[in-house]
Request: fold
Amino acid sequence: MTIRKFPLWSVLAVVLVVALVVGSGVLRSAPPSASQRALAIESVVRCPSCEDLSVATSSAPTALTVRSTVRQLIAEGRTDQQVKDYLVARYGPAIVLEPPASGWSLLVWLLPLLGGLVATAAVAGVLVRRRHAVDAGPAGGDGTEPLDGAALEERRRFLRLSLADADAEYLAGDLSDKDYLALRHRDMLRLAALELRTAEVNGADAVSPTRDVIVADPLVGAGGSAPGGRSGATADRAPAGPAGQEVAPASKRGRRSRRSRWYLGGAVAAFGAALVVGVSLFATNRLPGQTPTGSVSLTQDQLVAQSLTRAAALENQGQAGQAAQLYQSVLDGHPSNEVALAQLGWLEYQTGRSGGSASLIGDARAKLNQAVRLDPGDPAARLYLGTVLWQRDGNAVAAAEQYRRFLADGPPPAIVDQAAPLVRQVYQAVGLPVPPQVAGS
Amino acid sequence: MGPEGGAPARHTARWVGIAVLAVAAGLVAVLATRPPAAVSEVQSPLVGKPAPSVAGTTVTGAHYSLDPAPGRYTVVNFFASWCEPCQTEGPDLVRFQFEHQSAGDASMVSVIFDDTVGAARDYQAQLGATWPTLADPGGRLALSFGVRAPPSTFVIAPDGRVVAYIVAPVSASDLDKIIADARATNP
Amino acid sequence: MNGTFGHTGVLLGFAAAVAGVAVIAVGLARGRASTLRSGRLYAPLVLVGGVVALVAMEHALVIHDFSLAYVADNNSRATPLLYSFTGLWSALAGSILLWGVVLGGYATAMVWRFRRRSADELVAWATLVVYVVAAFFFGLMLGPADPFRHVAGAVPTVGLGPNTLLQNNPLVLIHPPMLYLGVVGFTLPFAFAVASLITGRLDDDWQGETRRWTLFAWAFLTMGILLGAWWSYQVLGWGGFWGWDPVENAALLPWLVGTAYLHSVMVQQRRGLLRIWNLSLVVAAFSLTILGTFLTRSGVIQSVHSFSNSTIGPLLLGFFGLVLVTGVGLIAWRGDRLRSPGGIDSPVSREGAFLANNLLFVAFACVVLLGTVFPLLYEALGGGQVAVGAPYFNRFFVPVGLGLLFLMAVAPALPWRKTSVETMRGRLAAPAAAGVAVVAVCVLAGVHGIEPLLAFGLGAFAAGSAVRALVLSVRGAWRGARSSGTAPVRSVLAGWRGLVGRANGGMVVHVGVVVIAVGLAAATSFLHRGELHLARGKSGTFAGHTVTFVGTRNVVSPSHSALEAVLRVDGGGVFRPALSTFGAGSTPVGTPAIDSGWRDDVYLTITSIPDTGGVWTFGVVEQPLVMWLWIGAGLVAAGSVLSAIPGRRRRPTDPVSAPSAGADRPAVPRGGGGAAGGDTVPGHRRESGADPVPVGAGDPP
Reply:
């Protein structure tokens, strides 16, 4: 708009500086006149017979006397300080309404300045430390503090709200594409890390905090189809699950990985959706801050992007059914939307697995295949398809190929980290060298 | 619930809380030991220093000037006819003047503070004050003594130094005591 | 007779409060719901006790029952009915009685609001705290501040009458009660803070409730303070409205902290952050009300407002210590475990702006507190006497005020979490241009001085920002209605919805604050003060105004006699500054007369009346834009009322699939809303259940 062409901010800055310089009277600086000096002194000298008024504001007879004395002393050629000293010698130091900046009363001047500095430093320190902590460890802590299930649950809740918040802000046009993606990416990472932590805690003391029902089934099944299993301390420490669960030792591990995989899926979904939203919005000429809703009619692309973001958010919050409905509604209008295809396929696959519905899984497989066909470069679809091939068919070779394509498409590191154990497993199963991205610990 | 579980890694709230309580304890201690403002004595920087000159026109039109005389203390009293505490101390001042008049070891002089000459003259006459009462046009004398409110009483030693300042109704015995003390420390 | 009734009422209130404490304590110890439920019944009894005492006291004042020492000291036969009535709060004991009644009212409103949840541990603890506070204040009335004490010896036939300054202007009828409604109102947030610290529940329950009650108290306190400024201007005769007097500071301190809380609680509600900080602010606000009462009522600090000295100082100080130890101790004990997870993403965000706002408000509160008690500290340190007055406070107030204006300009346009330069550039363009334009026009018009110019410029910037947010939300509401098929006329009316609710009402308050700030800057920077020496029939000019001394007249009423000077300003209206004497032998007080105008006010007082000759001296103060202060006060009041009206629960642009009320939190990100609309979302997001009760309405429908 005109804002871009017209250098508004530069003009404003210049006008402001010029106006303030002219208005502040720096240009015509003259020594203060006698009456200006008198007024300045009078406004800091207390009216002797009043409590809190200066002689400048009071019309008490004592104030009149002090005023005329001040003017007389100035006319005699005394300095401001000499005038004040003259009055202090008669009335005592309390005649001046400002404490002197010396001795103990220097405190009254220094304390606010020191306090202000300390407070600013403390706030800045908190901001900086928080940011470092965020980068270093999970969920905003420093990564070492002992956390119990409830604390983890609280952090999880916070992160989910943060994610929803970012969605809302973004849709309202408040967040820029870049910031939105960065925030989302970071929160997803933290959430994923937190899930691992939760799994550890649960494994350690077998406390399962109450949480939202996660409808979907695991990415990696109960371990039966993943013979290698996941190595590591968490698996070793896992005790037997509560009695009454079908596959006692493995189900614990399964639930653990199930959750982290679930978030992995969510992260991929959100990433994809955000990408689409970002691109489609970037392509339109919406002004910053302009709302894309209200009476502004949305373009089809925008509507689709909005639905996808919402669906992703729903998915994150465990509302798989609603998410699936939204994806379906997108597909009704746009049968070849690859993001919706991939995500819906994934949801269907999970539901199919948990319900043992082969037809649903078949449906899912078809959707994932179609998504891969439509957009060969979509990492999410590749990841999902590979996982289906591995878990469902035990087809490590085909799965490895999909994972290779997934890695080749340059997915965000957060997702790679999460997918790493699975990818390693598959690569090891086919005897391929593990790619460096996932070689990690 | 959150609070029951795991110990926190940082104790910011605890330390800040303790610091706040410590500061507040100091504040409360100071506040608890302060006397009421009305009781606390107003200090005058003039005490111990040479008194400003006391000179001017009396309500009767005569000229007055305070000249030091050996052995004679002077009580300078700032008053107003509308001031209730002044009415309280008035009879005591009359008695003080009566007691010391013959001995000549102390004298009185009054200065009008924020009042009309007419009202002040009537007031002094009604009280029976026979000592000089200075009109203080423009409040110059009050300013040179740093007077804030009536009644304010200064006691000036024979050598011209201010030995006491009282911002409250004084009694004859107060004044006698002040003068006796001053004589004892500085014969 | 009145004394007996009064004592009965006070005793009833005290007994009810103590019984309430005991019953709830037993209920909590035994964990018995029925006992907890019965604990709520004592709040109305406290109120009834207070009201009985209040009625007894008012009756005594109105019939001039001088057998009560309080009436004899603060009333006379000649006192008009209005000022007899207001005599209740013209001295210490009566003020404590008013405090007790208001607290009883708040307690009753609270138990009524939570009548269905009275067995809840958190509500029980909060009620317990309120009862403890009530027991303290009614206890004061039983002992050292007994308003119904009988006079010693024979009943006097004449009373002393109220302080002359308190029978000079009808504003005393509303200003002190407003102030008390505000100050006492901070008890409830404190009670909830303590309760949630004890129970460890920092969830929606307490933040929603605490914000509601704080907003309520804050609005009354704001009005009380502004009315107090107006009263000073109308009565005190020096042409100012704020003198940084200890009593004014005592009311300002909880206001500053309360304002900080009202902003930072939004960060908690929206982002779940700053929990402990918010608790600390609530505790601080209440502690400061008690400390302020101590400072102004115990007589340790001399003040033009300290109408009485008393013996309740040590008790108030002890109570202040108790409150502080309880509040801060609980925070120190539990705070670290209740800390919120996560942090602020970026300093340049709405959260960051609120944090900066809190820093400024709290830092300034510390300065005001330090300045107020510093003379005492200095004396205790052996330094002698020192005065800390307006010049000291102004030196800090000006930069803090300018900083707050800047934040008010930027913050409403800032999104939560993070922002980009482009976003802010687009949003702030119009407000910033308005600000710069105002500075430029002012300079061209000859306004000089860096502080007023910055105040005007930042004021326009901030007002532009607030108006922009309001326009967006009104337009959003209007378009929302139109797009949902409402008739055109009705959808225009629906735009009204864009002005209500917390966020939008808050923006109206912001506009009011800006208007006040501009008025303040103009009035204090460009004031002319002087004297006119006029003989009867003569005219003089001052700061562009012609003042004519027309004549004098004597006004005598049973309660007072006044000598009025009749002055004509600019050949128009007639104004009558006066010297009034209330009762024989008392010092005459000057009553100013004010020619108020849109452009400036001319403030006239009688400075001296000649002994002989006919030349009178009048004090004249000419100040521009004083009217803006009172207009701004009206806007602040209107904004507070608008914030109390509930905003929409759902936006029309919400998808149909969004779960409605009852869900813990809507799962779907709200699609609707512009910049301002974004603000209205969080308020609803985390409020559990359907709870549309606004601030100000104590009862749910």
Notes: Chain C touches chain A through 105 residues (CB under 8 Å). Chain C has 21 helices and ten strands. The beta strands of chain C are 528-535, 539-542, 545-556, 560-569, 574-575, 578-582, 589-591, 593-595, 600-608, 615-624.
